[in-house]
Write a sequence for this structure.
């Protein structure tokens, strides 16, 4: 922690004193008893929500100051402009225990609030706007030039009553209307340009399920949904159909995307890590599906069984140390990670190794850089997403493999501020005793 005692003229206290006071208030609030009276409970909820907003505003101010400080350091060191902000989202994400992608979004919000949306920041600090609503405003006004953004900020947030009572959807409509009134051409251009961001993503959710999301222009998206619903309605209307309308729509989407019915199995190659005894049903345990998360062994066997029936299953062996579940290493001489070694690292790490990131692995990375003598080996390798791999090369970051009591692969990252964070590879599931 920085021991500076700079004085804040507005408060008449040192910044260190203020920080200590905030920390004490946080501890006191966390241990405060819940009142017995329901009206007092509601009042306490309101106070806690106001505090949440104030804390969010404080975090945004601090992270923007950190961004400015890092840029100043890099300018002073002669770094090129394209490297000024490299690694800052990763550093903020580690501090907030969120992904670098989420931290990057927060940094953008912090910058916009400081430079263009002062009234929005005031409403957040006062507890009149939640952080979620602030994100809607920032995103909805991001395409406006500064004079229009400042005007929109004033129109929307100068008075607390303007947005009082609006939920997120109504707020989004209000922001869009305001932006369009101030810059019709820019708003239309933004909508037209957004089509380039269309994409498909998958994210695991609870109970062995996953959500496939397709981002499309709104007319296309509505058309897709209407087509699925029309097909499902015809099937359901034919009678003797045990599935719900929602289930028929989901099954129809799968069939149309893959060209196969759900009961035919999975034709797309996926990576499923499971112990041999769990695979053969000799012991209880779990498996890990790349992109799908942890699954019970029973579900994994069903997936493999269906695939095997249609000659769609292949087997590769992954060796781990008994007890600790640590993946056995192997060495290679090439600079780039060979395909087999990269696959081993990906199976070991499962997700990007930056703490809190959880993004899919895109690169096999040298912990100690190849240019610094780092070996191309499983011990000196880690799986990272693209953004984290590029960010780790920023000024002031160091990375080392360190010993861990579990015996599993562990990387210690040191940020430019001297903070240390450890990332240990997940334990490979060992089956329970028979």
């Amino acid at each position: 922690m920085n021991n500076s005692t700079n004085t804040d003229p507005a408060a008449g206290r040192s910044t260190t004193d203020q920080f200590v006071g905030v920390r004490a208030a946080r501890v006191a609030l966390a241990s405060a008893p819940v009142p017995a009276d329901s009206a007092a409970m509601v009042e306490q909820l309101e106070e806690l929500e106001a505090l949440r907003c104030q804390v969010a505003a404080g975090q945004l101010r601090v992270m923007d100051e950190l961004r400015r400080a890092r840029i100043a350091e890099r300018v002073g060191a002669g770094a090129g402009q394209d490297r000024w902000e490299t690694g800052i989202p990763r550093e903020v994400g580690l501090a907030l225990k969120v992904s670098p992608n989420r931290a990057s979004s927060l940094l953008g919000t912090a910058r916009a609030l400081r430079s263009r949306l002062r009234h929005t920041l005031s409403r957040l600090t006062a507890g009149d706007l939640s952080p979620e609503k602030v994100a809607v405003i920032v995103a909805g006004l991001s395409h406006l030039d500064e004079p229009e953004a400042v005007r929109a900020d004033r129109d929307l947030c100068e008075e607390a009553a303007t947005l009082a009572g609006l939920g997120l959807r109504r707020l989004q409509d209000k922001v869009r209307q305001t932006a369009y009134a101030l810059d019709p051409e820019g708003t239309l251009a933004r909508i037209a340009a957004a089509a380039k961001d269309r994409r498909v993503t998958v994210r695991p959710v609870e109970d062995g399920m996953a959500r496939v999301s397709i981002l499309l222009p709104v007319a296309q998206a509505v058309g897709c949904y209407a087509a699925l619903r029309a097909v499902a309605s015809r099937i359901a209307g034919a009678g003797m159909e045990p599935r719900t309308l929602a289930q028929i729509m989901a099954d129809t989407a799968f069939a149309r995307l893959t060209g196969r019915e759900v009961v035919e199995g999975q034709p797309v190659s996926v990576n499923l890590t499971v112990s041999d005894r769990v695979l053969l049903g000799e012991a209880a345990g779990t498996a890990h599906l790349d992109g799908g998360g942890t699954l019970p062994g029973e579900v994994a066997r069903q997936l493999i069984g269906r695939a095997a029936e249609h000659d769609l299953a292949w087997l590769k062996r992954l060796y781990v140390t008994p007890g600790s579940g640590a993946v056995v290493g192997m060495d290679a001489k090439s600079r780039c990670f060979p395909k087999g070694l990269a696959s081993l690292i990906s199976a070991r790490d499962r997700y990007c190794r930056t703490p809190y990131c959880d993004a899919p692995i895109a690169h096999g990375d040298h912990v100690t850089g190849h240019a610094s003598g780092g070996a191309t080996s499983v011990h000196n390798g880690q799986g990272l997403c693209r953004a984290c791999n590029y960010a780790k090369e920023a000024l002031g970051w160091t990375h080392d493999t360190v010993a861990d009591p579990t015996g599993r692969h562990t990387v210690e990252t040191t940020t430019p501020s001297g903070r240390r964070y450890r990332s240990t590879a997940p334990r490979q599931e060992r089956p329970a005793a028979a």
